[in-house]
Structures are given as C-alpha cells and as structure tokens.
Automatic annotation (TrEMBL):
This is DUF4595 domain-containing protein. It comes from Flavobacterium sp. WC2416. Keywords: Signal. It comes from the Bacteria. Residues 1-22 form the signal peptide. The keyword Signal applies. PROSITE patterns: PROKAR_LIPOPROTEIN.
Amino acid sequence: MKKSALVLVVFMTLLFSCSSDSSGSDSPVVVAPSALVKKITTSDSAGKVLVTTTFSYDGNKIVSESWKQNSFSMGTDVGYSYRMDYTYTGNLITNIKVNNIFGVPEKLVMSTNFVYDSNENLISSIREQYFDSFKMIFKVLYTKIDNNTQEFKMFTTDSRDNIENSSASVKIVFDANRNIIKMGSIDGTNTYSSFEYDLKSNPKKNILGFNKMIYFDLPPNFSVIYSKPHLDRSNTVLKTNISGYYPTTNQYTYNTNGYPIERKEYYEYNGDKLNAIFQYFYE
C-alpha cells in the first residue's frame, strides 16, 4: 500500500478501549472448550497457506498466540515467527509482549502495558517498540463519553530525543454488542473508517479481556506511529471501509454453534477480488 495511504490511516485506525462492566471478580468465566479458537490458517486466493496462528489458554484466559509466516522461497515452516505472551491482573489483560522467536535466542520486540479504572474501563496504554539502539513509545489516553462513544488521544516519543509529540484525536462509536462501527474526528464531521457486522459469534469472542481493547498489532507489520483497530470483539465482520484502503467484504461458513469455520475476504475494486481465505479450528 502506498505510503500516503498508510500515513492517512495513522489518524484513523488507532487505539482505545471500552466497556462499563464493573465486575470485580478474579475468577475467569467458564466457557465451553469448543467456543475457544485454537488455530487459524491464512491462505492466498489459490489456497496456499501463508500464515498459521495457534493459541494456548488457561481456562478462557489467553496465555500466548504464536504466529508463523511461511516463506515463499524456502518452503513451509521457514519464515517469520512471533509469539505474543499475555499477562492478566484478575480478569483484565495488563500486558502483551511480542517476541521474535525465529532466531535463537528469541528477541523481545514490543511490550504494551494497559491501565484500567475501578470500573474496568481502559484509561491508558503504553506500547514500547524496541530497536537495536533506541525505542519508540506509543501512548494512548482514553475518555469514555457515554456507553456507545469514546474518545482517545495518541502520543509518540522517540527515546533518542525523548520529545513527546501529539499525533491524533479520534472518536469511536460502538453498537449495542460493543462492536466498533465507526471511527472519525472528534467533532463528527469526518468518518475515517466504518464497519458492518452480522449476528454470529466472532471466533475470539470468548477470550477473557479481549472486549476491552480497541486495537491489535499483528506481526510482522508493526508500525512505530499507529495501530490497527481491534475488531475481534463480539460479532463477525461483514464489511470494512477504511480511508486509503480497498473496501473489503467477508463471506463466512459457520458451524452448528454459530462460530465461523471459514472466512473468504474480498477486496472491492473492479468487482470483488478474492484476497485471502481464513480457516478456524476450535478445541
């Protein structure tokens, strides 16, 4: 994607989180094993597997998410390999570490800390991304406006000069199921992205604490100045429309419990073009 498109998305698909659930219990909710996704494969339009993601759990708390991208030139099982390790405080995710596990020893490349208020609403997150001689810090402050609306402000700092720069302010709108349906300017005059959903269950719906987050950084495409919206909350995404990117449409095949077992992603340009195929495997 062109650099100009990526820069535009910096100001639209950033961080934040929500939820007014004030439960103080540290005991995880009991979820049937079949409701937790164990593996996701991503294939190209011809069916060649490009990425395999596996998940491990303690109850319905996620312990780790391992991401392996197969090499195009060297065959399968060779390529990028990352592991995301999750830390909980009670029922809330308070840290995510991303490790590059392709080499020996593995290398920490990113760490994000999350802070919540007494009602378990996310109020700030600080992500540190590590390079050989410096680090980039990505800070987000969250403000709850009402049950369906939140605002956040994003700041970046380069450790080489330690100057904090204010980058963007964004308003997020949710539907009744806490899915993100719109991201735009604070005054509401501009819409940067919009999303449509069906009423089926998202494959990551029952992972404890995921519904508190509004962004998710998937390896290896980490940016030092922006983050992507976290849409794996409640329902499955039918359509996305993000400025600077092709609109996408998803077609699903579901199991008898209403969870997807396959998703076909289409880019909308010169007609619908099949971009990727995702397959979901459950416990």
